[in-house]
């Protein structure tokens, strides 16, 4: 199979807010079909699973059986894929979608690298929603010719493979690739010139770094372990987090107090002392949702597009929490406490 070398179609693009008038109007209409908190409550309190699923089909989700988890995965994945295809065709600048597609590139890269090490097929783990097809990514790894890949993904592929070849430790490779994914996303966001998109990536980095710090402290690992995990580019500098970890967690809440992650950091400090992680994880996601909520009040521009794409990801997360909770016979109050903040 022959491929053309990768070229970004956005290098010379100059986009104005007004170029988003049409797609912003479409998104406002699409938001009306999203699952509100009341709809999620309907799913949660439904007597029968069929009644919970009916809420989803009325919102435009394809039908599936809760008896087969793979059907749920396929149905929710198809909604995400259709959304990318739909909005990708009409977005003036596709890099706003690339921010969301990038995580699938790196997921697929991890899966392919691990499969190569253990000599097994990665097919069941691959997700066909990245910027490049899984076949192109596989071919690049097999041949060593990375010219078909976006430059930062190509660098990540080489570095991730080097780590695996040198250490044989998939966890170390995953940690490196997570850091490089955020670097890739931040570079893409900055290239668009959008402060809103850049801010979204920054708070995602801060949330990931906060999670890593809390887990490091709970596992009684040292700062040197954390140093290899933390990503650059958030509001809170990695060196400040390392200082907190060296101090056994003292000052974690104060470090994030000026940010939207203030409540999450307080819960993180409680989790370090032995408290539950579930509240902490939820508050990290809710802080990101709070950042995105401003997009609801923007008439047009890239903010409604970014906000909606992220909101659909959160909606799918909430659907999984409810359906998996129902399958496991978890009581509604416990499931409710795990639900992420809704966008609408």
Please provide a written account of the structure.
It is built from 16 helices and no strands. With 344 residues, the protein is mostly helical. The protein has two domains: 17-102 and 195-338, no CATH class; 103-193, V-type ATP synthase subunit C fold (Up-down Bundle), CATH 1.20.1690. The chain is globular, with a radius of gyration of 21 Å. The termini are far apart. Mean pLDDT is 88; it is low at 1-7.
Any descriptors?
single chain, 344 residues, 67% helix, disordered N terminus
Q: Secondary-structure element sequence?
A: HHHHHHHHHHHHHHHH
Strand content: under 5%
Q: Can you give the helix content as a percent range?
A: 55-70%
Main beta sheet: strand number and arrangement? none
The low-confidence parts are 1-7
Number of E-state strands: 0
Radius of gyration, in angstroms, nearest whole number:
21 Å
Decide which structural class fits the backbone.
mainly alpha
Termini separation comes to 45 Å
Q: How many structural units, i.e. domains?
A: 2
Helix run count? 16
Overall pLDDT metric: 88
* Backbone shape: globular
What can be said about this structure in brief?
This protein is an all-alpha fold.
Please describe the topology of this protein.
Layout: H1 21-31, H2 37-45, H3 49-58, H4 69-90, H5 95-118, H6 134-143, H7 151-167, H8 170-192, H9 195-218, H10 223-227, H11 238-246, H12 252-256, H13 262-272, H14 277-292, H15 302-327, H16 332-338
Helix pairs in contact: 1-15, 2-3, 4-15, 5-6, 5-7, 5-8, 7-8, 8-9, 9-11, 9-13, 9-14, 13-14, 15-16
